[in-house]
Every structure is written in C-alpha cells, then in structure tokens.
Design goal:
This protein is mainly β. The protein contains one helix and five strands. The strands form two sheets. It has a three-stranded antiparallel sheet, with helices on one face.
C-alpha cells in the first residue's frame, strides 16, 4: 500500500449521532494490493506508540472530548445478511448476550 497522510476535520455518522473530529489524520491510499477500488483512505485505530504518523482516530476523539465514553467496539458479521459495525463512545448491548 502506498499513499500519503493528510489532516482534516473528520465527520463520522450523521444527524444526532454525528461526531466531528477536529484535525484528524487520514491516510490517503494511492495504490494498494490489499483493498479494492471502493477504498480511498484509511484511519488508524492503533495505540499512539504504534501509529505510523499523527494521532490515531480514537485518541483524537478523546482529545476533542466528543465521545460520551472513551471506548470503541467492533461487531463483525458472520454472514451476508448482517452488517459489520464500528461503534464509538457507547456499548451496544443488542450486539451481545
């Protein structure tokens, strides 16, 4: 994968659930053998000490104080009927028993 890093205000979600992250880092992908043509950028979820460049997204969200709780979680769908999901700031109790 190759590309470059940029900084911008990132908007995630919409309406009441929209999160605005000021000065977020985004990796702009210019060529890749990993992703298909639908992908044009990536954001990091690593610990700051593991980040390639800039402040990782969740740390920038914490820094901007935009989350109700400083957490995030993945839900990975196991079939074609459900959708995978990345959730910031809350615990979605419908995703586990």
């Amino acid at each position: 994968m190759s590309g470059y890093f940029g900084f911008d205000d990132l908007r995630i979600g919409e309406g009441e659930k929209e999160i605005v992250v000021k000065g977020g880092t985004v990796g702009v992908v210019t060529s890749s053998q990993v992703f298909d043509s639908e992908y044009d950028s990536i954001v990091g979820l690593a610990y700051p000490s593991m980040a390639e460049y800039g402040t990782p997204l969740v740390d920038k969200m914490i820094e901007n104080e935009v989350l109700p709780r400083n957490i995030f979680a993945f839900y990975m769908a196991m079939n074609d009927v459900e959708e995978s999901e990345l959730v910031f700031g809350i615990i979605d109790e419908t995703r586990f028993t």
